[in-house]
Amino acid sequence: MRDAFSSLRIPEYKILWWAGVFSFMSVQGQFVLRGILAWQLTERESALGLVYLVFGLTMLVATPFGGVVADRFAKKTVLLWSQVLIFVAAVAMGVIVVADMIEFWMLLVASVAQGLAFAFYGPARVAMASELVGRDQLGNAITLSLLSMNGTRVFAPAVAGALAGWALFGVGGAYLLSAFISFLSLVQIMRLPHRPAVDATPRNPFSEIAAGVRYVNSIPSLRRLVLTSFFVIMFGFNYVAFIPALVEGIFDRGETWVGLISTASAIGAVIVSVPLAALADGPNAKRIMVASGLGFGVTVMVLGTAPTIFAAFGIVVIIGGFTTAYQSLSNTLALTAADEVMRGRVQSLMQLSFAGFGIAAAPLGALAEVIGLRSAMVVMGAVAAAAIVVYQLLETAAAARDEATPGDLQPSEPVEV
């Protein structure tokens, strides 16, 4: 247990961790509320997918710039303004819903705002964590960061769903509560130390993005990690976008159950996070990552065949554990392999997988309307599992080659950073 929470003994990291707790608590609630509103306004899976598509496209465009900003600007400043945007979006949506002025296009605007905030918040937060704890505890810090996110998912989606279904409070009230919690994150971020960027030399941002891509491409193991994560998250994680359709459309349950199912994955994540935090910097990290990624894809396939809402709840608990293990370890391996001056951009490329998740939601929603939601979920899980199998085959082949030519983690040629 002492090893599992070692990073939290660093005071500055502890402040960053609490800032993440409040931020993720707010954001998780908003994800559920946006899905509920999209389903209530349209009752179509494709509409749910469109909300996530806009989120994904925004992240796709903005995340590479978020990585550059994290490398070239003070990370506290980046976190602060990103959180301000999350706060303002929550307040605006709460007021609009309370005033009964909500329209579907407004959900798309809210998705753009949150996607833009995530694009800058994510790389800056992970890069700042690596600064505060150092390379030796990087895996522990990343796992605890995910624990802060998944811990809030144990109750935040359920509370948001319950409040949305409570006539006295409603979706608008739930949004305003989310805004208040987001403000608490702002307070914590303002307590963080101000540290200048490692290299604040102004450069063309497009050249910076290109340098980051060249850097990742020059390290074969890092390139494989980034590409595999993209496919696993883009397809496998999309099950969350269709939870409202699964719960309300197939199992005929209400908004409260939408929140409860979303909470189920967080329960599995929290169960896994504590032992994982003690192992994340160990020699078996890659093996655990591969096993958890494969398990993630398989259990998403099983979710598509769940006979009852209670079976779905249990399956999603298991999915949550596999997801957390895969995300924690893939990010740890990627950032450990990267130079400090490039970590923001490497993390931004890893985070692009969530842009892919949002982009794939719309075509997957259209596919679900053609072949059925259950079949579409089986397809999602199958693609994620196949990506892990391909990754392992490539790693095995690379290991065989490296016996003769070591140094897979070194760039094949000099790269400007």
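That was protein one. Protein two is written in the same sequence-then-structure order:
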Amino acid sequence: MIYMIHRRLTVLLMTGILVFSLTMTADAQNKEPTAIYSVDTDEKVVALTFDISWGNKYAHPILDVLGEKDVYNATFFLSGPWALKHREIVKRIDDMGFEIGTHGWKHQNYSQHSDEWIRQQVKKSEDALYDITGKRTRLIRTPNGDYNARVVRTLQGMGYQVIQWDTDSLDWMKPGKEKIVERVLSRAHPGDIILLHASDSCPQTQYALPEIIDGLREKGYKFVTVSELLKKGEPQP
């Protein structure tokens, strides 16, 4: 009798484990792919990221600041046409040891285009950056930060990780140096991806950046590239 009860309990337990396992597997398979906004970690690390799509006025000043502050672990997302037009800046970014990701070709929302159009756009940008640096990009920040599950699935199929941000500096709104600094310092957290720009549309970033770097260091943060950050913990959508 005791044997039969034990056997039934064992069967019930094994059945429960199997059902739980199948449920978890199904949930994982049904989960829609998404972009990465941050990383779950207790380590005080953040990734500074800079988008560039047009202009050449502010890229060099921002690179100057990063060099002066001894920050060489940052990630730049560069559009293909801009890169071909400003090869010397791209080479400087690469020579300084910064990580380079792609920002696509045409600055249009990917969710409004077909999978094939997306592939063509990303491949053109990838080839342009490879022509300049000799390195293949594997990180992408989509134009305007626009994406949906289909876009992410298409890009992942090309071997890309789609990178967003958790802290938007709002430097593109030109709110003033002080507000850019305050926004970043008040919102930054361990595993954060911080959005900044080095395009001509964001003239205040170069002035805010020194205080951002100093402020984050005072809070105990270290700077890493996006790829380095992804090794620190579980990526967060």
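The two ends are 52 Å apart (CA to CA). Keep this in mind for the problem set.
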